[in-house]
């Protein structure tokens, strides 16, 4: 996967997340909405969250600090985290 280039909209990031979540965890793309809770609605666990963080690192080309990812709970939180990574 090629790293993202700026400028990106939330929809651009959401589209990439839908692909990642489908390819990595077999989650149907229509379930991946900004409001979707990663652990409750999408059935991810803590190990899946680590895998997702690795995928986001590949997507952005930047290293994610674990403390920056601990508060991520929803797809919207992931989108915000990607924006933060890309703007660092």
From TrEMBL:
The keyword Transferase does not apply. It is found in: Cytoplasm. SUPFAM superfamilies: ACP-like. 4'-phosphopantetheine is transferred from CoA to a specific serine of apo-ACP by AcpS. This modification is essential for activity because fatty acids are bound in thioester linkage to the sulfhydryl of the prosthetic group. Residues 11-86 form the Carrier domain. Pathway: Lipid metabolism; fatty acid biosynthesis. InterPro entries: ACP, ACP-like_sf, PP-bd_ACP. Its main location: cytoplasm. Keywords: Cytoplasm, Fatty acid biosynthesis, Fatty acid metabolism, Lipid biosynthesis, Lipid metabolism, Phosphopantetheine, Phosphoprotein. The modification O-(pantetheine 4'-phosphoryl)serine is found at residue 46. Carrier of the growing fatty acid chain in fatty acid biosynthesis. HAMAP family: Acyl_carrier. Belongs to the acyl carrier protein (ACP) family. This is Acyl carrier protein.
């Amino acid at each position: 996967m090629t790293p993202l280039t700026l400028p990106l909209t939330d929809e651009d990031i959401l589209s990439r997340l839908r692909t990642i979540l489908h390819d990595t965890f077999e989650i149907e793309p229509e379930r991946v909405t900004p409001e979707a809770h990663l652990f409750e609605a999408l059935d991810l666990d803590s190990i899946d969250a680590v895998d997702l963080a690795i995928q986001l690192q590949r997507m952005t080309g930047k290293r994610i600090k674990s403390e920056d990812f601990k508060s991520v709970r929803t797809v919207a939180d992931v989108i915000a985290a990607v924006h933060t990574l890309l703007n660092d």
